[in-house]
Write a structure and sequence with these properties.
The chain has 220 residues and is mostly beta strands. It is built from two helices and 16 strands.
Length: 220
């Protein structure tokens, strides 16, 4: 008998159709029935999966279902869903957050602080020279030495609007100096090189331009 190309099922020859065609057709039917036996059975919700690399070797298995059936956007979030690709975003209309919040490297635009205290971080220096660094922004730099102290303001280190607080703790008078390409503006006796007036007096350095500083406070 001839056979099919893919599965090798026996099919009647031309003469079989006349001589014993019924038997040949039964043989073909039984071959097909045997090949597809794995398609029988199964229950609702099951799917067919390959049982081996053999052709038409299948088994019924229960479809795997993830344990996440929905993503719900909570307070302060938008988005979510119950199917497909789901994303969440911060709700821009949120005005307040409850509980303790830690904000790292965030820019607050026009913040309003109700109550509470903002504590200055101190940077204590005891040498006779000091050049401010980016990390001094918003801090209190204490300069303390018995001899005169030079505090140099460097170029292109800060953004406009940043400020540094400087206090003279020691007897040595603090004089501000311009770094390379820097301009200092003040009401000091020497406007580009103001001095802090005396021990325990303070000044604030405000960045008003690129490499441009305004020094205000107890100056001499």
């Amino acid at each position: 008998m001839a056979t099919t190309t893919n599965f090798g099922w026996e099919t009647p020859d031309d003469t079989d159709l006349v001589k014993d065609g019924a038997a040949a057709m039964r043989t073909l039917g039984n071959s097909i029935d045997t090949s597809f036996v794995d398609l029988k059975g199964g229950t609702s919700g099951q799917v067919l999966a390959k049982a081996s690399n053999t052709d038409l070797d299948y088994t019924w298995v229960t479809a795997e279902i993830g344990d996440i059936t929905a993503v719900t956007a909570g307070t302060g979030l938008t988005g979510g869903g119950t199917s497909g690709s789901v994303s969440l975003a911060i709700d821009s209309t949120v005005a307040t957050l409850t509980g303790t919040q830690t904000l790292t490297n965030k820019t607050l635009t026009a913040p309003v602080i109700n109550g509470g205290l903002i504590n200055l971080t101190l940077n204590a220096q005891t040498g006779t020279t000091y050049t401010t660094v980016a990390g001094d922004s918003g801090k209190l730099v204490t300069l303390s030495n018995a001899s005169a102290i030079t505090c140099t303001l460097p170029p292109t280190t800060y953004n406009i609007g940043e400020q540094i607080n400087i206090v003279q703790l020691g007897a040595g008078q603090v004089t501000f100096a311009q770094g390379s390409g820097v301009t200092i503006r003040s009401t000091g006796a020497t406007s580009t090189a103001p001095k802090i007036s005396k021990q325990y007096a303070a000044a604030t350095v405000i960045v008003i331009g690129v490499s441009e500083y305004l020094v205000v406070g107890a100056l001499a």
